[in-house]
Amino acid sequence: MTTREDAVQQAAGRFDDGTFLAALARRVAIPTESQEARGAPHLADYLIHEIRPTFETLGGQFHIYDNPVPGGPPIGVGVIDEDPSLPTVLFYGHGDTVRGMDGQWADGRDPWKLERAGDRIYGRGVADNKGQHSVNLAALQTVREARGRLGFNLRFLLEMAEEVGSTGLREFCDSHRDLLSADLLLASDGPRLEAHRPTVFMGARGALNFDLSIDLRAGGHHSGNWGGLLANPAIILMHAISTLVGPTGAIRVPELKPDRIPNSVRACLGGLSVDGGPDAPEIDPHWGEPNLTPAEKVFAWNTFEVLAMKAGNPDAPVNAIPPSARAHCQIRFTVDRDPDTFLPAIRRHLAAAGFPQVVVTPAEKGYFNATRLDPEHPAAQWAIASVARTAGQAPAVLPNLGGSLPNDLFAQLLGMPTIWVPHSYAGCSQHAPDEHGLAPILREGLQVMTGLFWDLGETPPKL
Q: Residue 278: is its pLDDT beyond 90?
């Protein structure tokens, strides 16, 4: 009789014998660039020719649906119903990638060709998200082969537009609630907190992007003739921003940050370090909200960032006072504040501070809502225990990821507890040339997910 330990070792064998990497190589080779028109035909190909036949080996059916938004790429959903009395788990992932950035990778690497160099496994999508959902597919295959069944019902949701804002995903989830109904979301994206230690997170910070702009006149005017006489919008905007966020990055507007960190969240983050690996930037300890640990700053607090600024033409400056200035800004936020209050609060604050001419405009894209599952929730405790049993060490537990994901669709729209187990690390060059995964993380990920899926069929959480 096959045991849990047998299945976990079989999962590691898939990595060691090259089976897993061969499947990942096929997927990386499909140039699913959702940000480029040339990638459009490959988005459907990925679902039709790669994911569908793989899912069918599990004994399920894989359906491909038109995107509810015209022009959006298709959405795939795999279905396995073993017994209505068993729990149902929803898995989420995305098969699209950012641009390949051909010609920019070190040592002449091809972004669409899997290449291993030591423990690094290079290829576009290895970290985000082909490698991660490939780990989970292989773990599902391992459990079914070892046990002869999954032991639970499965919905496998794979979108092809995550890198362009998940076009149509909200509408799809809303109109297919019955199809996607589940007791638990179990998915993988984002990085581990530390490369050598598994991570479990239960939500994500939200993201609100917006512009701050000043438009004073029709055109520029000679700085020698008009300097000191005409208001400079760039200078005004810099001073306006300085009233919103201080010189060390701390938010100055109370309405834009939490009142406090919940005790359960603070306890969860206690003792955790933020370590992106050897290629990660060095943390600036003086930056951000004072009296918080680095983990609390990233996972339990709000941040205000200026992502881009422009006045005049920085690439070809002239001796003229610019007529306008603009800054593209972002607030990353936790569930502890209502994001609908942020922009009105900024407008009130700027007007009171003497900057009524600053226009606050929400961005057309760049919004995710915040979610967080209490670390004491039975699903969270079950997942933490399962990962610890497989890995032989307690995982890092985050109430929510520092980045943003469409997790609100599952936690709020579809109303289920959400568990994420990432198979990447912060130094993976995600969204850049030289994207890669680490062999030890992918191998351990196969074992961890096999253990989770095995436990889901034997001792599921009480929900």
A: no
Residue spans per domain, the chain: 4-204+371-458, 206-258+302-367
Sheet containing 61-65: which strands, arranged edge to edge?
A: 61-65, 75-80, 153-159, 88-94, 184-187, 418-420, 199-201, 396-398
What mean pLDDT comes out for the span 4-24? 98
Residues 6+ apart with CB under 8 A from 439: 15, 116, 119, 120, 121
Alpha-carbon distance of 378 to 68, in angstroms, equals: 35
d(CA 45, CA 100): 17
Cis peptide before 291 (omega within 30 of 0): no
- Among residues 321, 222, 216, 334, the alpha carbon closest in space to that of 269 is found at 334
Distance CA 410, CA 185 (A): 7
Q: Dig out the tokens for 40 from the structure.
A: 């459009």
Around Cβ 427, how many Cβ atoms within 10 Å?
18
* pLDDT tens sequence across 295-314: 999 999 999 999 999 999 99
Residue 380 has pLDDT above 90, yes or no: yes
CATH of 206-258+302-367, one of 3.40.50.300, 3.40.630.10, 3.30.70.360, 3.40.1370.10: 3.30.70.360
Distances (CA, A) of 361 to 77, 158, 253, 340, 343: 36, 32, 18, 13, 8
Distance CA 231, CA 215 (A): 11
> pLDDT tens, 169-218?
999 999 999 999 999 999 999 999 999 999 999 999 999 999 999 999 99
| Predicted confidence (pLDDT) per residue in 118-127, tens digit | 999 999 999 9
Q: How far apart are the first and last CA of the chain?
A: 29
Residue 191 in 3-state DSSP?
coil
Residue 235 is inside which H or E element, if any?
A: helix 233-244
Q: Closest Cα partner for 442 from 203, 195, 150, 201?
A: 195
Is pLDDT at 275 greater than 90 in this prediction? no
Please give the residue that has the higher pLDDT: either 351 or 273.
351
Task: Name the CATH architecture for the domain at 4-204+371-458.
Answer: 3-Layer(aba) Sandwich (3.40)
Record the tokens describing residue 356, joined without a space.
């009524």
